[in-house]
Design a protein that fits this description.
Shape: globular
Order of helices and strands: HHEEHHEEHHEHHHHHHHHH
CATH superfamily of the largest domain: Beta Polymerase, domain 2
CATH architecture of the largest domain: 2-Layer Sandwich
CATH topology of the largest domain: Beta Polymerase, domain 2
Strand order of the largest sheet: 3-4-2-1-5
Strand content: 5-15%
Radius of gyration: 18 Å
CATH class of the largest domain: Alpha Beta
Distance between the termini: 38 Å
Amino acid sequence: MPALTDLVREELSAPVDPRVAAMAAAIAAEYPGSARAVLFYGSCLRESELDGLMLDFYLIVSDYGDAYPKRWMAVANRLIPPNVFPFQHAGLIAKYAVLSEADFHRLNSAETRNVSVWARFAQPSRLVWAVDDTAQERAIAAVSRAAPTLLAAAGQIDGEELLDWWRRAFSLTYSVELRAERSGRAQSVVDAEPDRYRRFGEAAAAVLPASAASSGGWARRRIEGKLLSIVRLAKASLTYAGGIDYLAWKINRHAGTKIEIKPWQRRWPLVAALTLVPRLVRGGAIR
C-alpha cells in the first residue's frame, strides 16, 4: 500500500488547465519575496470549462508581516486566518486565501478544532506553483496531515465501511461551518472519486493513533465554527472588495436562492453581512 505522503505528492503534482497555472503564478507575483506556494482546490478541479466559475486558491506565504504593506492586514490574517481576496486574470475570476507556512501546517492538523483547512485539504487539491523545492516539500507535508486529522476527528465506528467513514466525517465538518450547499454534499464529494477515497483512507488509517476509535467535541466545534464563520464574513467585508456580492453569489449558486444585494448593502458591507447571515440561517439557505 502506498504511503499517504506518496499519494499526496502524486495528487498535488497532477496537471491542471494551463490557465489555472498561469493564474496561480500571477497571484504569487503579487507577493514578491513572501509567496511560497499556491494550491488549487474545490469543485473547479473537476470542471473542464472554467469560464464563469469562481476558482479557489490558497496562497502560502513565509510570514504575514512580509506579505502585507499594511500592518493591520497582517494582524487580521494572524488573528483570524485566512484573509481572502478576489482576483482576475486572463478572463477568469478567482478568490484566494492567504496563510503562512506555519499556519498552513498547524491548521491541517489536530492541533486545532477549526475544521476549515483540514476538511478542505483532505479532499483533492493541486500544488500549482512553488517558489522552490523546500516550499514544495513543506506544502506536501502539511497536506499529508489533513486526511488523518479528518478521519480521526470523526472517529471510526466498528464495522463501518471506509467510504461511509469518509461520508460521515465530511458531514460532520459541513455541520460545523455556515454552509450554502444542499444536503447530500458530503456523499457527492466521496462518490465523485470513490477509488481515490479508498486509497487515501487506507493510507490515512494506517497512521491514525489508537484514539481514533472514538470521537467527540463536535458540539463545541459547531458552536465555535458557526461563530468563527460569522466573524470571517465580517472581516471579509473589510478585506475583500465585493465580498458581499460574492457571498450572495455563492449562496444563490448552492442553495438555489435569488438574493439581490441592495446599494446600501454595498456601501455598508459589514452591517449587511451581519444582518444577512442570521436571516439566511433562519430561512435554511445556509446551515
